[in-house]
Amino acid sequence: MDISERDFEKELQFQASRSGGAGGQNVNKVATKVELRFHVESSELLSVEEKQRIQEKLAARINNDGYLQVVCQTERSQLQNKALCIERFKELLRQALTPQKKRKATKPTRASVKQRLENKKRQSQKKADRRFNL
User: Fold this and answer.
1) What EC identifiers does the entry list (predicted)?
2) Annotated domain spans of the chain
3) What pLDDT score was predicted for residue 5?
4) What pTM, to 2 d.p., does this model score?
5) Amino acid 11: pLDDT
6) Count of other CB atoms within 10 angstroms of residue 78
């Protein structure tokens, strides 16, 4: 099942606080900053393999208590920041759970090899010319 189709709403915790930075009087009295918290281990919507992959890929975003945190404070309304947090959260999960493609080893093209050798010869000749001009 795709990440966007799963209903994580029941497992998400939200906390609102005052946002920092510029914004005038509104900043001092309105809690618009939203912090989304998601406990990876206790999730019922993720399989064991998905939990392991998320913990490996998003280790920098998971705190010591096992919570994945996403913070949004760009918008001026708490509702917009909450929606943005959910969107970012789903995008993070999608990226973490997308398997990385294996790299196919390729050989350099004949033209690139020829060009590299010509450049080496040119550089070598330039340095050889310097030796005799002393």
Assistant:
1) 3.1.1.29
2) 3-97
3) 76
4) 0.69
5) 85
6) 19
Strand 67-72 relative to strand 33-39, pairing: antiparallel
Assigned fold of 3-97: Double Stranded RNA Binding Domain (3.30.160)
Along the chain (134 residues), what's the average pLDDT of each consecutive run of 10 residues? Answer: 76 84 71 90 88 89 90 88 92 89 94 97 93 69
d(CA 129, CA 134): 9
- Smallest Cα–Cα separation from 85: which of 43, 35, 40? 35
According to the model, what pLDDT value does residue 43 have?
86
Helix (H) or strand (E) holding 37: strand 33-39
Q: How far is CA 69 from CA 12, 16, 33, 60, 124, in A?
A: 10, 13, 13, 10, 56
pLDDT for the residue numbered 122 = 96
Pairing of strands 12-17, 33-39: antiparallel
- Residue linked to tokens 């789903």: 90
